[in-house]
Design brief:
Layout (H helix, E strand, L loop, with lengths): L1 H52 L7 H10 L12 E10 L21 E10 L24 H6 L19 E10 L13 E7 L1
Antiparallel strand pairs: 1-2, 1-3, 3-4
Amino acid sequence: MRKRARNGNALVEFALVIVFLVPILFGVFSIGMSLTLSVQAAVVARDAGAMFMRYVDFSVPANQALIVRIARGMGMTETGGNGVVILSQIMKVGAAQCVPPYADTTACPNFNRHVIIKRIVIGNSALTTSSIGTPGPSIITADGSIGQSDYLADSSARADAFDSLMSLGDGEFAYVSEAYFITPQLDMPGVRTGTFVYQRSVF
């Protein structure tokens, strides 16, 4: 009788403990998988940025497919899916860059600022926006470039958030690659939802 009573106690204790152990186990799995996907996102950002810096034309669908191939398994397509890669070319506007009709630096709206002179978005653009700035769609051409008059005068071309990353010299360039992927497969309803991974590379 005493043995059967002890067996019952063990069952009750196990039931009480398992309520806490199961969420912890799922949490450990979710966070571990997030780290794995974060490493893959870093590879995507690094490789995309390295090619972008070397003037690979990512406005061409065949070249966009290269990025999708690198992001294999993360649910990304060239124009949709669970991921987006945002490529930006940044320039610091100095006096030499302020050309007519903005040759007078006092009349050059974006003088002494970092501006985005090229922007390419691959994947699902509805997922997120760039952390360094979002040029107005009307000033971005088919190949992703932004005209001189636009990046000198249009306030939407400014990349003020880039100031916290580094400071370029007048006329110098930087290339920024951002990779963002949502991970709904790792969500834990009521505990951990809206999960995603984000990585950025600067060249």
